[in-house]
Amino acid sequence: MLDASPQTAARITENWLRVRDEVATAARMADRAIQDIRIVGVSKYVDVELTAQLVDAGCHALGESRPQNLWGKAEVLRQSNREIEWHLIGHLQRNKIRRTLSQITWLHSLDSLRLAEALNAELKTAHESNAPSAALNGPQITPKRLNVLVEVNVTQDTTKTGMMVDALYQAIDQMLDLPHLSLRGLMAMSSRDTGGVETRREFAAVRQLRDDLQVRCGPRAVLDQLSMGMSGDYREAISEGATMVRIGSSLWQGILP
Ligand SMILES: *Cc1c(COP(=O)(O)O)cnc(C)c1O
User: Residue 136 phi/psi, 5° resolution?
Assistant: First the structure.
């Protein structure tokens, strides 16, 4: 990884503009509005200085997969007054909930009913007591309701993360009863990283699952978000209805070894 410099800033800006253009092209080809697709820049590969350069290039939604890394960057960058919306895209351990909740706007990786219940309980406490958050440079405002996506394992591959479809069906009613969670849709990863026909079929299955769940939920939830697609397969994801693409490597070309 290079150290941040004017050269890295120029390269990151070039990468950002290219990715944004490619996402716009994919949206156009799928007959979709570009405003309906949010690019979450995945900053897990780089340090906070390079992450700041991505924000300055124009990417204001950032994703991290490890809570500790998200905290560290969020706390530093908050002091610089950059406008950033943080997304946690990896597994959240229950002992990290409190500190994470004060930083994030979206959780893409809700993967069990137990985690949902623990999140709801923490949000309830935070809201009732108006307690200052555990963030180091707080006070940060913990939201009353957190936007969550259920991470699903649609290929039923036991080596992959995410909830199995039948487990999700068993848990969904209880999840919908949690007043501090706003269930907004699904997150999924393809079982391949190359794109192509099979990837597209998998993303189509995620969208179908979302549609079926929406029928099951009725007015209790608006499942309007699909987080799917990474550097290797966001075109397929956009053509199958992704509203959030989580892009890392493509944004760091020329920066990472
Ligand atoms: C790392 C990561 C990404 C980004 O992947 P790239 O292939 O680098 O674009 C997206 N989603 C999740 C969950 C990740 O962990």
Answer: -65, -40
